[in-house]
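RECORD TYPE: inverse folding
INPUT: structure tokens
STRUCTURE:
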């Protein structure tokens, strides 16, 4: 399955965030932009969301994960990391694809912010209508 000197790479995107994930066989240490997840993300819910593919495949303590993430906010970055980890796990073991696909962790969430249109205050908010 995995030799000791191999590294596996995956890319994840969500909203305007991009995460580059590198997984190597190890003890389960996670580094995000040279920091621990507890220091990087403000709350534990975001961290649990990010680690969901590892918990489903029971590989949380088997690989060291190094992530470089940029753009967006915490939720978008967490989603990008989650997708990157899921894609990397599938590269490591293709049998994981069935488990991850059932939980919809392999599909890229294509929803993005809608652009602002001219004549409006935002994407859809129109100026107040006056009858007279």
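DESIGNED SEQUENCE:
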């Amino acid at each position: 399955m995995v030799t000791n000197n191999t590294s596996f790479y995956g890319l994840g995107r969500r909203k305007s965030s991009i995460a580059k994930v590198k997984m190597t066989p190890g003890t389960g240490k996670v580094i995000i932009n040279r920091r621990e997840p507890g220091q990087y993300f403000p709350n534990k819910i975001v961290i649990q969301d990010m680690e969901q593919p590892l918990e489903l495949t029971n590989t949380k303590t088997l690989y060291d994960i190094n992530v470089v993430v940029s753009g967006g906010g915490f939720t978008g970055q967490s989603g990008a990391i989650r997708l990157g980890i899921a894609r990397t796990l599938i590269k490591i073991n293709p049998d994981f694809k069935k488990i991850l696909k059932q939980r919809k962790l392999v599909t890229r969430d294509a929803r993005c912010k809608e652009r602002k249109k001219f004549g409006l205050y935002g994407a859809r908010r129109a100026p107040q209508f006056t009858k007279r």
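NOTES: Residues 96 and 102 are 10 Å apart (CA to CA).
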